[in-house]
Amino acid sequence: MAKNKVIINKNFCKGCGICVSVCPAKILRIGEDFKVEVENEEKCMGCGMCEVFCPDFAIVIKKEVKV
């Protein structure tokens, strides 16, 4: 069973919202601090779209495989 961990570096994030718009699982949102944050991480598909399209390299998807 795979579980995905979404890691956001808030020091790099400028809150552009690109990651929010490209996430097919809709697990990202812009928070009160105008930076991206994760909702419902368990629904992350691990597609990496947010990581690929982030212009600031602020998001990393870590995939854990548990057996």
UniProtKB/TrEMBL annotation:
Keyword Zinc (UniProt): no
The 4Fe-4S ferredoxin-type domain, residue ranges: 4-33, 34-64
Highest taxon of source: Bacteria
An example Gene Ontology molecular-function term: 2-oxoglutarate synthase activity
EC number(s) stated in the UniProt entry for this protein: 1.2.7.3
Keyword terms of this UniProt record: 4Fe-4S, Iron, Iron-sulfur, Metal-binding, Oxidoreductase
UniProt cross-references to Pfam families, sorted A to Z: Fer4_10
Name the UniProt record assigns to this protein: 2-oxoglutarate ferredoxin oxidoreductase delta subunit
Organism (species): Caldisericum exile (strain DSM 21853 / NBRC 104410 / AZM16c01)
Organism classification: Bacteria, Pseudomonadati, Caldisericota/Cryosericota group, Caldisericota, Caldisericia
